[in-house]
Amino acid sequence: MYKPKLEKEIRCPLEYGMDVFGGKWKPRIICVLADESPIRYGKLREETVNITDYVLTYTLKELTEDGLVERTQYNEIPPRVEYSLTEKGYSVLPILQAICSWAGAYHKEEKEYPLLKCQKCDYRK
Prior knowledge:
- This protein has about 120 residues and is mostly helical.
- It is about 45% helix and about 10% strand.
- The protein is built from 6 helices and 3 strands, in the order ααβααββαα.
């Protein structure tokens, strides 16, 4: 896994939160796992459209290291691995739902690319 030459300097809780669950793919992966958990890698790949295998694998490793996702490997042939949210992962959902609601309320409607309602953000534990 890529290791930066310099450690990130996180100065406030917001920076920590954005580092742990922010970015392009982490929120989408968390929402898919909230909707369908546990889920196998192939199904997760289908649900997160336009993501490469490398980015999905790297992001899952980061989410696992940060304690938001649990990876369960079964000793079977062929090997089976499932991913699910941890309690810490579920605790992020209200934050992501609030961001989704805010974005829906304040996004300027564009004729060519209107914002669609996210099907995963309605998840309630």
